[in-house]
Amino acid sequence: MPDTTVPATELTSQYLTQVTGDLERNVNEQERISAEITTLQERLAMLRHDHTVLVNMQQALEAAAPTTEPADSGLSPTVPAPRKRPAAESGTRTKKTTAAQGRATAKKQSAKKPPTATADAKTAQPTLIELIRRDLTEHSDPRSAADISVALGEAHPDRRIKTTVVRTTLENLVARNQAQRTKQGASVFYTAPTPPEPAAASLPSATDPGDETVR
User: Is 86 helix (H, G, I), strand (E, B) or coil?
Assistant: First the structure.
């Protein structure tokens, strides 16, 4: 029995020590919180007192303030006038604008002006048919389409005259009896048409004197 009693006593002593410590800590915590509550209550009381003082001051100031509002002067806010540009700058811009308009007008007039000289020159040039007929008339010997094309190209270098076009034009002239075509082997030659012979003058028929009626 003595052996079991000793351990139980030690365990009880340990619990007692622990409970005593917890109790002290609890008491200390209560005291701390109570002190904080007291401090907070004091601060709350001071804040309430200050609040009452401030409310009284606000009411007193509102009562002493004038009730009438200042009359509106009725004056509109002054708008600053726009800055004037220097006369020299304005004159320079006006000159530039006038010059630009003049150039634009000149360009339009030059674009609208018909190229009369070029048109007259093109109109004055003979047609290909006239050139071919003139070449055939100036040369009595038969000429091929290539010969005529070379001659016309040298006489009129500004005109692109092709042999195929010349040959087609010659065939059209032959079809209209305005040129003659002869063939020598595989080559074809062209000449100017032979002018028609003048018709023989008709002689007056001899009248038999015996046929006349004697009155």
Answer: coil
Both structure tokens of 40: 């907070």
> For the structural domain made of 123-191, what CATH number should be given?
1.10.10.10
Dihedral angle sign, alpha carbons of residues 15, 19, 21, 22:
positive
Q: What is the pLDDT along the chain (215 residues), one digit of tens a residue?
A: 445 555 678 889 999 999 999 999 999 999 999 999 999 999 999 999 999 999 999 999 988 877 655 555 555 556 666 666 555 555 556 666 666 776 766 666 655 555 554 545 555 788 999 999 999 999 889 999 999 999 999 988 898 899 999 999 999 999 999 899 999 988 999 999 887 666 554 445 444 444 444 34
3-state secondary structure of 56: helix
Q: How far is CA 48 from CA 36, 60, 180, in A?
A: 18, 19, 137
Q: What is the DSSP string of 19-46?
A: HHHHHHHHHHHHHHHHHHHHHHHHHHHH
CB 140 within 8 Å of CB 195: no
Residue type, 109: Q
Q: Which two tokens stand for residue 108?
A: 């339009």
pTM over 0.85: no
DSSP H or E stretch at residue 119: helix 116-124
